[in-house]
Amino acid sequence: MQKQRATGGAPTVALDFRRPADRQAVALPTLRVVGGPDMLRFCSVYIGYSVTIGRDGACELPLVDNSISRRHAKLSRDHSGAISVEDLGSTNGTTVNGRRVRGATLVRPGDVIGVGGVMLRLELLGMEELAHLQRVVERLNVANRDPLTGLNSRWFLEQDLPEVARRHVHTGVPLSALMLDVDRFKGVNDRSGHPVGDAVLQAVARLLVLSVRHGDVCVRYGGDELLVVLPDCDEDAAVGVAERIRGAVGRHDWEHYAPELRVTVSLGVAELRKDEDAGTWLGRADRALYAAKQGGRNKVVRFTD
């Protein structure tokens, strides 16, 4: 039996798409981590196979959180397609939708499985969704990235962005920027501590990358301010992308990070003009972001003169 391996932290991805029956399936049941340092890490569950979750590197879904036992839980899919989860004698237990697992427990897509302090959701994902998720994970794990968020560092702004802007001005292809800021981020650090603040920023970055196209460039601009560069995207389309990001952050389960925690973001949008350089363009996006925050936060504002 060939092992499945998770994606998201290990350098090698091993989703096995070679079985003809599974390759033709509309969707695959997939476990996806929804918070913490392993957020977006995932593993699909094939008929007749099982996925072991734990801190042991030999597990099909290895996770780093210290609340998880070395071999914590096992998810199995029988030949009828039914999926069940069982605890493997872990220290901190396993739950399904908040209820402690006693023996093998049936689970369905949409259920939330808790292993120690880590939450995973069982989802039905099509091949295109799995491929997108895999690309997102790979983008966050390449070299020369910001060490906390996995996004491009400011090196991109200094080395690549000016030429990208000049090329788009020359060709007439639209280019837009989204400037994003976590609302009241200092309050998150003050109330819940800097480790929670770091986890929030890391999660926002992952939601950001998950919400945009593979060719869009995501940058940690500074502190809790993030930037997205959207090639071939005019201002109207960029506003739609910004609203999608805002919604994804607002819907995320933040109480897993700290009790009663709620996180929102504000975004400023600006399209590159023919008569300006990259610095002026980003300055307009930043002013639009400032207007969004001054206007009540948790909103999208496009730049207007």
Write a brief caption for the model:
With 305 residues, this protein is α+β, with helices and mostly antiparallel strands.
> What share of residues is helical?
25-40%
Largest sheet: 6 strands, antiparallel
| Shape field | elongated
Q: Termini distance?
A: 63 Å
Strand content: 25-35%
Largest beta sheet: what is the strand line-up? 2-1-11-10-7-8
What is the mean predicted local confidence, pLDDT? 88
Q: Strand-and-helix sequence, N→C? A: HEEEEEEEEEEEHHHEHHEEHEHE
Can you tell me the residue ranges where pLDDT is under 50 for at least 5 consecutive residues?
A: 7-25
Number of strands: 16
Helix count from the secondary structure assignment = 8
What is Rg? 21 Å
Give the helix/strand class: alpha+beta
Topology overview:
Blueprint lengths: L19 H4 L4 E6 L8 E3 L5 E5 L6 E2 L10 E5 L5 E5 L6 E3 L2 E2 L4 E3 L4 E4 L2 E8 L1 H14 L14 H5 L1 H11 L3 E8 L2 H8 L1 H18 L5 E6 L2 E7 L3 H17 L13 E7 L6 H17 L5 E3 L3
Parallel strand pairs: 3-4, 15-16
Antiparallel strand pairs: 1-2, 1-11, 3-5, 5-6, 6-9, 7-8, 7-10, 10-11, 12-14, 12-15, 13-14
Helix pairs in contact: 5-6, 6-7
Task: Fill in the keyword field for this structure.
single chain, 305 residues, alpha+beta, 6-stranded antiparallel sheet, 5-stranded mixed sheet, 8 helices, 16 strands, elongated
Structure description:
By secondary structure, the protein is of the alpha+beta class. 31% of the residues lie in helices and 25% in strands. The chain is built from eight helices and 16 strands. The chain has helices at residues 20-23, 127-140, 155-159, 161-171, 185-192, 194-211, 235-251, 278-294; strands spanning 28-33, 42-44, 50-54, 61-62, 73-77, 83-87, 94-96, 99-100, 105-107, 112-115, 118-125, 175-182, 217-222, 225-231, 265-271, 300-302. The strands form three sheets. The protein has a six-stranded antiparallel β-sheet with strand order 2-1-11-10-7-8. The protein is elongated. The protein starts with 19 loop residues before the first helix and ends with a strand.
